[in-house]
Amino acid sequence: MFKLLIPPSHPRRESLLIRERLVEGFKRGLVALEGLIAHGRGECFDYLIGEKTQPFALKAIEAGVAALLLAEYPVISVNGNVAALVAKEVVELAKVIDAKIEVNLFYRTREREKAIAEWLKEHGAEEVLGVGEDASATIPELFSERRRVSPRGILVADVVLVPLEDGDRTEALRKMGKTVITIDLNPLSRTARAANITIVDNIVRAMPLMIKKAEELKGWSRERLRRVLENYDNNEVLQEALKHILHRLESLSNSKLVLEIEEACRTSSE
Ligand code: ATP
User: Fold this and answer.
1) What would the DSSP string read from start to end of the chain?
2) Band of the pLDDT at 268, cuts 50, 70, 90?
3) What pLDDT does residue 160 have?
4) Which of 39, 41, 180 to mutate to test the pocket of ligand 1 (most atoms within 8 A of CB)?
């Protein structure tokens, strides 16, 4: 319905449709209020990046998929925003790479855990970890509900995909010796800087590309996948993301910014 209200030519159409999915997710009890705000931070960086997947993201997608395919026990972590935006893609990617799916919330409540798990199941997930009693293990060094994970999921995983994650948890997962892959539009966030592989892109664009890449790389030998990882440098990728923003702003700052608005002719009586 909302879709029909935004004309196809609207410059912010995609962005507005994504917002609407989050609002829907909030109404369904998937997304926390704080999640709506977190999305705003992401949107701002998407604006700066140019709202298109850039070469540095493609490099990270390839490395991330290689790491997931090489993993012994890969897990995809899902929070409210991830569920609202890419539930179908999470389920599809998990099937292609044979990964577990775990609900992993910053603002954990039973209701939200259950709502997210149900939503993922409606989108084809057979099993969803991290719900209720299953989230009985804890990540060392973290406090409160944020530290709870599944002993059959993130706790024992060797590689975790944790999109839109918070910095403390990313650092704690790294300290536990896990390979951490994230999707985060902000190349300066602590998560982006603490992860092993950072896909600086909107999750809505990145996930379908990851699925495609996983289907392609599934046919590669382990040796070839390992070479992808050996040649990958996350620091370089983050630098490229920042340089891209820098060059974009440089060129925009030298261009004409004001919009020409055609004003209606005033009549003499006005
Ligand atoms: P950190 O603790 O890692 O420094 P943060 O406190 O800035 O992170 P959070 O609110 O914990 O951020 O997490 C949200 C992160 O997800 C932000 O860095 C934001 O840029 C990013 N983000 C939000 N929406 C999207 C999206 N649709 N796609 C990709 N990244 C997103």
Assistant:
1) -HHHHS-TT-TTHHHHHHHHHHHHHHHTT-S-HHHHHHHHHHHHHHHHHTSS--HHHHHHHHHHHHHHHH-SSEEEEE-HHHHHHHHHHHHHHHHHHT-EEEE--SS--HHHHHHHHHHHHHTT-S--BSSGGG--EE-TT--GGGGEE-TTTGGG-SEEE-TT--HHHHHHHHHTT-EEEEE-S-TTSHHHHHSSEEE-S-HHHHHHHHHHHHHHHTTS-HHHHHHHHHT--HHHHHHHHHHHHHHHHHHHHTS--SPP--PPPPPTT-
2) low
3) 98
4) 41
Q: What is the pLDDT of residues 84-98, one digit of tens each?
A: 999 999 999 999 999
**What is the distance in A from the centroid of ligand 1 to the CA of 270?**
50
Q: What is the pLDDT of residue 258?
A: 94
Whether the pLDDT of residue 143 is over 80: the answer is no
Atom of ligand 1 at shortest range from CA of 203: 28
Give the binding-site residues of ligand 1, using a 6 Å CB cut-off: 38-39, 41-42, 45, 164, 166-167, 183-186, 189-191, 202-204
Closest CA to ligand 1's atom 22: 42
